[in-house]
């Protein structure tokens, strides 16, 4: 392959970010060079997301812009679509306005060099075959756009849950797990490179199983790589959350006291239509168990407003669940029908758009009030904050996250650098951010010992 510059624009979830890092590695191994702007690239990839309609719409608009750029350069440019959208609507992508030259699904990235060669020979190139084995475990990701402090590591691919609203099983295939040894090796490399926080990624991390290790086993092994490197994970499923994992999080200081636990709805009939195999009561029992075993744990969730046939009473049940749990953070969306899903085949998307928007607004408004109340209670407390870099609002301030995943902003000090742990007293807040004063530089172990002493 001729050496060419390439640019990747990534949309969607953390898994897509991780996939982009794998593609970086594959292309750079072939002698290609990454660039930071599409105007400088001979090959442009859009790594796509299919989870909601507006995500796909953004991609279509971007592809039209790249088509215009290609026309300016007399066609001397290759445009490709990667990821979930490539898998879901590959035929439409190839046909629509001749926007792209190649389409590559999430399990076919190893085939990119050959597909680019085919395009160079004047062909359109497509590989969207899903795999039962591919985990990219042997490929060392190339991280170009992170902060050098926090990283993502994919531990498994695909999903077997078949939730009615979700397209992931159709775009990413069946579940398969990386072997634990390759994951621990990658964590060790990240630790050696100075990373201080890693998030383990999977569509349902509770289902992780490499034949020898459960997810609880993997989390314990991850905690032993470096006691000064924080470990997070996303996302678990409420249906099979092991108590053993909660005990391990409670016992290991570098396993973060923050759990993302998607509820989607607070009503049992809606959960059944969604094919979420738990009830409201079981979910609340799990939340109670989490808080009993991990004192001070913070929780976040996913919520869908206006799923098929949702009534006002069912919507009120979601509001009441959120008020009862009191999440520290929530990702909230109006239902967006996706092709090939069970919901599209079996249910009618019959909640009017204006009703969806109104219900979503009510959910967001209540959640923001709860977040502000919870953050107000943080004032006066001490937290260990991992410094991620300069605050977006001011070069005179730094920002970082607590163990419980709350963003903290504080005044810059000469002796504090990105990647340091600092002990901070919280002095003020908004619904999204805490403000604080630095007490001193510290470490996970030092902060833990002080907490025990108190």
From TrEMBL:
Principal cellular location given in the protein's record: cytoplasm
Catalytic activity line of the entry: N(6)-dimethylallyladenosine(37) in tRNA + (sulfur carrier)-SH + AH2 + 2 S-adenosyl-L-methionine = 2-methylsulfanyl-N(6)-dimethylallyladenosine(37) in tRNA + (sulfur carrier)-H + 5'-deoxyadenosine + L-methionine + A + S-adenosyl-L-homocysteine + 2 H(+)
Any one of the GO CC terms: cytosol
EC nos: 2.8.4.3
Residues that coordinate or bind [4Fe-4S] cluster 1: 13, 49, 84
The protein's name in its UniProt record: tRNA-2-methylthio-N(6)-dimethylallyladenosine synthase
Gene behind this protein: miaB
Protein role: Catalyzes the methylthiolation of N6-(dimethylallyl)adenosine (i(6)A), leading to the formation of 2-methylthio-N6-(dimethylallyl)adenosine (ms(2)i(6)A) at position 37 in tRNAs that read codons beginning with uridine.
Domain Radical SAM core: 145-373
The organism of origin for this protein: Fodinibius salinus
């Amino acid at each position: 392959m001729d050496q060419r510059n390439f640019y990747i624009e990534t949309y969607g979830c953390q898994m897509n970010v991780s996939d982009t890092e794998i593609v970086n590695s594959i292309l750079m191994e072939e002698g290609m060079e990454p660039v930071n702007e599409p105007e400088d690239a001979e090959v442009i990839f859009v790594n796509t997301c299919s989870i909601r309609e507006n995500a796909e719409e953004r991609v279509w608009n971007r592809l039209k812009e790249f088509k215009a750029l290609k026309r300016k350069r007399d066609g001397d440019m290759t445009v490709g679509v990667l990821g979930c959208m490539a898998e879901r609507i590959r035929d439409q992508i190839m046909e629509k306005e001749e926007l792209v030259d190649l389409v590559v699904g999430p399990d076919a990235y190893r085939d990119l060099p050959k597909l680019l060669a085919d395009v160079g020979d004047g062909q359109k190139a497509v590989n969207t075959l899903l795999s039962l084995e591919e985990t990219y475990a042997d490929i060392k990701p190339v991280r170009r756009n992170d902060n050098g402090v926090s990283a993502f590591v994919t531990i498994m691919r695909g999903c077997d849950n078949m939730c009615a609203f979700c397209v992931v099983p159709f775009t990413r295939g069946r579940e398969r797990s990386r072997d634990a040894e390759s994951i621990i090796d990658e964590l060790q490399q990240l630790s050696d490179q100075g990373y201080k926080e890693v998030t383990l990624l999977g569509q349902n991390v509770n289902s992780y199983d490499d034949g020898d290790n459960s997810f609880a086993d993997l989390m314990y092994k991850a905690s032993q790589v470096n006691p000064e490197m924080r470990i997070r994970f996303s996302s678990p499923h409420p249906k099979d959350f092991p108590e053993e994992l909660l005990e391990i999080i409670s016992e290991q200081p570098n396993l973060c006291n923050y759990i993302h636990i998607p509820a989607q709805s607070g009503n049992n009939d809606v959960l059944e239509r969604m094919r979420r195999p738990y009830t409201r009561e079981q979910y609340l029992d799990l939340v109670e168990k989490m808080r009993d075993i991990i004192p001070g744990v913070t929780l976040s969730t996913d919520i869908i407003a206006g799923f098929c046939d949702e009534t006002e009473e069912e919507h009120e049940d979601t509001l009441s669940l959120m008020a009862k749990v009191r999440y520290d953070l929530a990702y909230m969306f109006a239902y967006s029908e996706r092709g090939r899903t069970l919901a599209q085949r079996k249910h009618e998307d019959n909640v009017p758009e204006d009703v969806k928007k109104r219900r979503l607004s009510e959910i967001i408004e209540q959640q923001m009030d709860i977040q502000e109340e919870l953050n107000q209670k943080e004032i006066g407390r001490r937290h260990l904050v991992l410094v991620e870099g300069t605050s977006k609002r001011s070069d005179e301030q730094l920002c970082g996250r607590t163990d419980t995943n709350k963003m903290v902003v504080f005044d810059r000090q000469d002796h504090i650098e990105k990647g340091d742990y600092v002990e901070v007293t919280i002095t003020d807040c908004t619904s999204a951010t805490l403000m604080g004063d630095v007490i001193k530089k510290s470490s996970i172990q030092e902060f833990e010992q002080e907490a025990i002493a108190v």
